[in-house]
Fold these 2 entries.
Entry 1:
Amino acid sequence: MFRTTIAGSLPKPAWLAETNKLWPAWKASGAELAEAKRDATLLWLKEQEDAGIDIVTDGEMSRQHFVHGFLEFVEGIDFTNKVKMGIRNNRYDAMVPQVVGPLKLKGRVHETEARLLRAHTTRRVKITMPGPMTIIDTIHDAHYGDRVAMAMAFADLLNQEARALQADGVDIVQFDEPAFNVYMAEAADWGVKALERCIAGLTCTTAVHICYGYGIEANLKWKETLGDSWRQYEQVFPALAASNINQVSLECANSHVPLELIGLLQGKDVMVGVIDVASEVVETPEQVAATIREALKYVPADKLFPCTNCGMAPMPRDVATAKLRALAAGARLACEPA
């Protein structure tokens, strides 16, 4: 009954990059690195299939970071002279590149991994990209002088790549927007409009992933300040419900998100986060099934897609593999009478 998927990223094998890091250094370069990325993508494709995941991704094996993996293919960005900048409303600092001129794609961004997946699986394939608001919150503007103008410029580039991914045979194009849970008023005002620009002309399934971040220390500390009821979704879900986006991903497992907020997404497919990425404790199938059954009070079964809360890039590989199995097993269990 339930088609399972993941938010996007998976841990990089130790022979590809540093482990348990959000910004890992590569272990190779040139042709050797390209081959290693290909091997890692196929490895995680097989792991997802073996676990029983229905909608598979490339695990973001070709990207050092989920935002910068896109930015590396964009002209008008200076990676040499990085500056220190607060990210997600100064939740943490990072050294980021600068936009120094008009933005333009150098060429294809995710063609290699999209075609690799399509050639090696009959399952539905999803490719993820950072959303415009999250991109501009992760880069310094030394050119546009206007956040919205720069976001719309990135939206045009994302749309260009999304159309090409669709032509590659990708079934679902997802845009990751953790910034939507930080700048809620802006997200409802122009963030969703930027997403609409990203999906213009697409006929494949489109999705947006909104979470509370990876299980890194800065995010864990931030969550501790949010109180007992996390209602950030409440401000942006109505705008998303009125949009042309097909699917919305949200965090549910071990969080303080009131599940009734799902009701604000009436008519949309809902990727319900049933796997906690902020903990290395592996969920039991029973726990996953319980979260799914609770969510069923607010979303029809045919529109519920069990998913992970967020990406699992910084997580130990064996833990991520076990969580994939728990996700699929719990989804099967949820189909049985309680």
Entry 2:
Amino acid sequence: MRRRTYTHTHRLRLERAAAHYLRDCYRRVTAARASEFASALGVTAPYLSRIAPDILGMPLRDFLRRKQLDYAVQLLKTTPLPSKEIALRCGFGTVSTFHRWFRSAFDTTPGAFREVMK
């Protein structure tokens, strides 16, 4: 079977859909889930997980996590909210999960990151 080629337009559409989905998660203060995102797009989770790396250049789960961390960085830079509130607003569920993912991505804690940004 021939592998499908995805265009820049496919990437933009998927990124916009992800941004919309994540904004909805932030508004509801719920965790982002690849299966829920796939359902919102009207496709199955296995299908979306299979095509996402070709479109986004990374697995869907990593892409969604990266977007959550980008939002967390924005909140750390622009608000005095405590880590617990940021973790919940960004859909991480717990502060420890937020700290683990943040440290993994940026090699520092959210608190230390905020201090450097002052």
